[in-house]
Amino acid sequence: MVLKGREKEYKLISDLISTSFEERHPQSIMVRGVPGSGKTATIRLVVNDLKEKLNFVPAYINCASITTKSDFFRRIYYVITKNDTVLTASEAAKKTEKVLFSQRTVLVLDEIDFLTKLDSSRTSLANSIIKKIFDWPLNSGGKVVVVGISNELDFSEKVLPKKRVMLPDVVLFNAYSVEQLIDILMEYVRKDENLATAEAVKLCARKISAMNGDVRRAFSLLSSQTEFIEEEMEEEPALKRPKTVGLSTPCKSRPSTSTQSSPTRTPKTHKDILLSLQNIYSSPAVSAKIPLHPRIVLASIIKLMESENSSKKVQTVSFAKLHELYDKVCKKMRIEPLNHEALRDAVSTLVNTSILSLKKDKICMEVDVDCARKKIQDDELINSVGSIGN
């Protein structure tokens, strides 16, 4: 079974791994994309489908809980051998390489960006370990395939030098589009006719697409588990620990607060979805952490206002100018831009948090620029948008 909307990515990753083992071609893969885009689930499906056919040992490591070099190598060694002998850092590194190079192995490193934080601030040590990992396919004679999974869209470029004998093949998972989310959610709703109406599903898909396309948030919103969305939005992506393992959806992984479901439950309507979103955005903690696309929108508006040198108290920009700059920013960031309607939903997200207001086709800033920058909480994004020519 392949995840809906991820058929192309599934085939590409499957072909890369198959070709590597069949032709003894050293292979590393960098899978990257926004949270909730199906990266981990797709990799697990590919590995499970191929492991017997290609006779390799799968080794799955979530790097979010690893803090030291020795812990990293010991974790790999244990996952493959089930041997929990206490080893020093150097012993663990040697034994890990020995067992990896002795058999076909697919090493999956989920949330690989956490490895840059190994041993506190020793960045050079952390980066040297990452480089070593991506050399394993070559040094093992093609016996090891390394698959890194990251939410950072430029992770490999930042960590790995461009002049390397072998760079990983990059597989990009774009955020789910509105259409893909509708297909996924409609299939989900069919399992429970009393969950939501078709109109509610379509509205939920539009709103989630405008945030960042995280399908897990859509599941939670339809299941009335808005506390999951609040927690996800409150936490910094670089600091949070994974809440679920495997292929289960978040709404199934969190126990219900009630002991049994009500037999008289009626399907959620579009009004219920709007009310749930309003409750979420009324939380001060949530409004302090804005989703990806609304952050891009806000950074673009700041850029447009500064370029016009407006000194008005209530500064405004046209939706047309915003759309033009927003598309340029998405292209530069190598992410799929929202369509016209979904972009309006992203603007509405900022209106709900009282950062913006709408007057016909004009977008008004309701806070000063310095406050807006603080809301974005992403200097790299602000600088990136600021460097784009009008």
UniProtKB/TrEMBL annotation:
Keywords: DNA replication. Gene3D superfamilies: 1.10.8.60, P-loop containing nucleotide triphosphate hydrolases (3.40.50.300), Winged helix-like DNA-binding domain superfamily/Winged helix DNA-binding domain (1.10.10.10). It comes from the Eukaryota. GO terms for molecular function: ATP binding; ATP hydrolysis activity; DNA replication origin binding. The keyword Iron-sulfur does not apply. GO terms for biological process: DNA replication initiation; mitotic DNA replication checkpoint signaling. Residues 25-177 form the AAA+ ATPase domain. InterPro entries: AAA+_ATPase, ATPase_AAA_core, Cdc6_C, ORC1/CDC6, P-loop_NTPase, WH-like_DNA-bd_sf, WH_DNA-bd_sf. Residues 252-266 have a biased composition (Low complexity). Residues 232-268 are annotated as: Disordered. GO terms for cellular component: nucleus. Belongs to the CDC6/cdc18 family. PANTHER family: CELL DIVISION CONTROL PROTEIN 6 HOMOLOG, CELL DIVISION CONTROL PROTEIN 6-RELATED. This is (pine wood nematode) hypothetical protein. The lineage of its organism: Eukaryota, Metazoa, Ecdysozoa, Nematoda, Chromadorea.
